[in-house]
Amino acid sequence: MVRHLACAGGVVITASHNPSPYNGVKLLLDNGMAPPPEIAGRIKSIFLDKTFAPAQTDNLGKISTDSQADEIHISRVLTTIEPQTIAAKKFTIVLDSVNGAGGRPGKNLLERLGCKIVPLNIEPTGLFAHPPEPTAENLTSLCDAVKKAGADVGFAQDPDADRLAIVDETGTYIGEEYTLALAAKFIFSQKSGNAATNLSTSRMIDDLAKAAGGKVFRTPVGEANVASAMIQHKCVIGGEGNGGVIDLRVGPIRDSLLAMAFVLQLMAQTGKSLSQLVSEIPRYYMTKHKFPADREKIASILEAAKKLFKDAKIDTSDGYRFDFPDGWLHVRPSNTEPIIRVIAESKNQQSAQKYIDALLNITC
What we know:
The chain is an alpha/beta fold. The chain has 12 helices and 15 strands.
């Protein structure tokens, strides 16, 4: 809507998947993207230093409302797929919006696609029915509902609806990493091109891009970084492994509605179930860990890891990512907490755990 209305910027009041006692403010530039680090830093300093003054009563701004945001956004999503093809399948969908912002537009989109909807926590009360991050342990009720309804798929949005997790027709949580992989599988079935994603995302998208004659550009974690790379390299698909899908035809942000549409289009055009489509994607084992660490300890861990994995290909744009023939390891400080995040991926659990254990030995 920032771009549609040619606004100077935008403000989103949300703390996304954080627990309900928290809140947050997301700022958007006039291009609809989050500010890059240097601009975000300047904004933060202005706020913290309070180097601004409220407007006087004789110079107040004006407020107006626009209720067309859902319709405008959904219309753009619909231009990227074939709604009639999906509607002909009459899919049954369980939608869990965790009482966040995604329920109303999510239900609207699915109705427009001819789906039978089994609603689960779709009223936007902000009173989360379960812990709001769309992880396996928080979506057991969705898995049960899919089995009970005999549904074709279960979709779980996070509270601000930029991430999507998926449950297959057997009631099995397939994980957020597959959201981007399935979206990419659909896009690459339509056209060739490149993709962009962050350093912590599965190699599944690399395999899919390679098979389609394209390549993947890796960025530091953060949707603005991915969107910038997509613009720079004219990528046809992008996103992050947390369930976020980006298509610049709709907007330079992660979008759960877009992700739902792409997954349903892939199912409709192939005639395959979700579990069948997942089985066709090269499979990896991923493990994620985090533990407390201040900046000094993080710097020490990173330096020790660099020496330990000196034979690996190293990317230092966001912590350190080490690429090996059989997998990769990403070690990075959190942007929001005094912790260090560690993610490893390989073809099998033993190989991934080997890299995690080697790093843990450094921290002990």
